[in-house]
Amino acid sequence: MTDPTDAADDSAAAPATESPVQRALRLKQAAIAAREKPPRGGRFQREQAARIATGKSKPWMSR
């Protein structure tokens, strides 16, 4: 079976002395970077900033 991460063009971007662990880390970081990012600015950011502070939802925790 062939692994989709074993593409021929993938080896051109990696150094020849790359260990399997370094390769796995590079591929993992590339996958994380390719994920969808949360929206920035605008209404979403205002809603995030307007959230209630952690302790405020538990009035019995304050003195």
How would you characterize this protein structure?
46% of the residues lie in helices and 0% in strands. By secondary structure, it is mostly helical. The longest helix is centred in the middle third of the chain and has 15 residues, at 20-34. The mean pLDDT is 75.
Please tag this protein with its features.
single chain; 46% helix; mainly alpha; 63 residues
Question: What's this model, at a glance?
Answer:
With 63 residues, the protein is mainly alpha-helical. Helix content is 46%, strand content 0%. The mean pLDDT is 75.
What is the fold's blueprint, element by element?
Elements: H1 8-13, H2 20-34, H3 42-49
Spatial shape: elongated
Structural class: mainly alpha
Question: Could you describe the largest sheet, including whether it forms a barrel?
Answer: none
Number of helices: 3
Helix and strand run: HHH
